[in-house]
Write a structure and sequence with these properties.
This protein is α+β, with helices and mostly antiparallel strands. The chain is built from eight helices and 23 strands. The strands form six sheets. The protein has a six-stranded antiparallel barrel with strand order 5-6-7-10-9-8. A six-stranded antiparallel β-barrel has the order 11-12-13-16-15-14. The N terminus is likely disordered.
């Protein structure tokens, strides 16, 4: 039985000469989706095939496969996957006329059939190849940029870390066993156990200050202006030690003229008194350390030097009658002191107290040293410890302190150089107290005192400050101007418990 072999779609019903006994009729072959490969999509002919032609099976006996090409619809193998081999041509086949063309031009339909799509068109493939090349170039550029960025990051990391090995920074050595004597750390370590913080409430006021332990009985030295609110009805004073222990305290004695006070705590054991130094022995430029609770920050340590000595300062005066004015022949320091440092110790290199921090000069002070709420500008003032020690002893012993006096009334409105004795006292009596130290030394109303112990005196406040730096009974040498003449007088200081 004859078997129809499909020909190309362009020649349905035609026959193709065969090389065997007979030729079979060639009929159009239906395209198979499974037989279509990517060669058709690009309109390419496979190597060894004729573009635009279809494979035709040899049906003669002894034929070995297929000949021709499939024009991109079938692969280069037979139906059984065997490779295509060209069949040997017979002499009869060589004498046959060539077969008609299997494909016709698009504009020449045959037998009324619609024209076929031209195979082997290359324009779409060229466009796709151009787009592929552009995509390839863009991808290569993007890959280069990303690779460069990643490589840069990796290089920076390796340079920073020294490679892929683990980083081992230099390790600190063993801590030193201690601090050199005289260092700020060593001074602070020795003094801090003796420094306390005072919190005071009363009379609608609150205050925070500092103090330090004087003895094992619980006496603590501080400023009068720190404890002043606590002496009113309902007042309360709480002392907190460096270890955190807190205790109530009571006022033993206080003095407004020196701005010093002593309070005492009870029931607290293990107190460490702070050693006292010699304020007369300090020199300008000596290093000092201040400890206190500035702005309620307990245990704050600052350092500086003694920047001046015998600096006459006055503070207080809020009462208006002068009863609360303090006169201090102060040590000046640039160690930062702020509100809350009041009453704390100023220490020398041996961790001994050489002063009691009391006042600062701040940028907003116009009339002189005060509480300095604006903060330190490097002008701090401390009561010399030699003066504070004497006052503290009197306050502990009697509750009151004595003041050295000359027995005269000064004209505080005098604007000339020196301290002038007023014409009369505030109560209308004589300006030079009868049988007082001044009267016995020969002072008279109108005299201008220009020097004390050879040191110039420029105002009445300065004369008071210089006088209170001494003890009652001390002998002083005065230089006096009277009626244009200069006189030298000697007097022995008297004693008074009035401010």
């Amino acid at each position: 039985m004859d078997e129809g072999i499909p020909t190309s779609p362009e020649t349905p019903g035609d026959t193709v000469p065969a090389t065997g006994e007979r030729a079979k009729e060639v009929t159009p072959a239906a395209p198979s989706e499974a037989a279509v490969d990517t060669d058709r999509d690009f309109g390419l002919a496979r190597p060894g095939t004729t573009p635009g032609a279809r494979n035709v099976r040899e049906v003669s006996e002894g034929s070995e496969g297929f000949t021709g090409s499939e024009g991109g619809e079938r692969g280069g193998s037979g139906g059984d996957g065997e490779p295509v081999r060209a069949a040997a041509a017979s002499p009869e086949a060589a004498q046959q006329p060539p077969p008609p063309p299997l494909f016709l031009p698009l504009d020449e339909p045959r037998d009324g059939r619609a024209p076929l799509q031209q195979a082997g068109a290359v324009a779409p493939w060229e466009r796709r190849r151009t787009r592929s090349r552009r995509t390839l170039v863009a991808g290569a550029l993007l890959l280069a940029v990303v690779s460069g960025a990643v490589g840069g990051l990796i290089g920076a990391y390796l340079e920073r870390t020294g490679g892929l090995e683990s980083v081992q920074l230099p390790q600190p050595g063993p801590p030193p066993p201690g601090r050199p004597p005289g260092s700020v750390a060593a001074i602070a370590a020795r003094a801090l156990p003796s420094v306390v913080t005072l919190r005071v409430t009363g009379a609608g006021e609150q205050a925070t200050g500092t103090g330090f332990v004087l003895d094992t009985r619980g006496h603590i030295l501080t400023n009068n202006h720190v404890v002043a609110p606590g002496v009113s009805a309902g007042g309360r004073i709480t002392v907190t030690f460096s270890g955190g222990t807190a205790a109530r305290a009571t006022v033993v004695g206080r003095d407004t003229g020196y701005d010093l006070a002593v309070v005492q705590v009870h029931g607290v054991r293990g107190l460490t008194p702070l050693p006292l130094g010699d304020s007369d022995a300090v020199r300008v430029g000596d290093p000092v350390v201040a400890i206190g609770a500035p702005f309620d920050l307990p245990g704050t340590v600052t350092a500086g030097i003694i920047s001046a000595k015998e600096r006459p300062i006055t503070s207080g005066g809020g009462s208006g009658d002068g009863s609360d004015v303090s006169y201090v022949d102060a040590l000046q320091t640039d160690a930062p002191i702020n509100p809350g440092n009041s009453g704390g110790p100023l220490l020398d290199v041996h961790a001994r107290a050489v002063g009691v921090n009391s006042a600062i000069r701040s940028a907003d002070d116009q009339d002189g040293p005060g509480d300095g709420r604006a903060g330190s500008i490097g002008l701090g003032f401390a009561i010399p410890i030699n003066q504070a020690e004497r006052v503290a002893e009197e306050l502990i012993a009697t509750g009151r302190a004595t003041h050295p006096v000359i027995g005269i009334t000064l004209d505080m409105d005098y604007t000339g150089d020196g301290a002038r004795i007023d014409a009369k006292a505030a109560d209308g009596g004589p300006a030079v107290a009868a049988d007082g130290p001044g009267a016995r030394a020969g002072l008279a109303a109108g005299d201008v005192i220009t020097a004390l112990d050879g040191q110039p005196v420029h105002s009445g406040e300065e004369l008071i400050v210089r006088t209170r730096a001494h003890r009652p009974g001390d002998r002083l040498s005065l230089t006096v101007e009277r009626a244009g003449a200069e006189k030298r007088l000697t007097l022995v200081l008297g004693s008074s418990d009035r401010n």
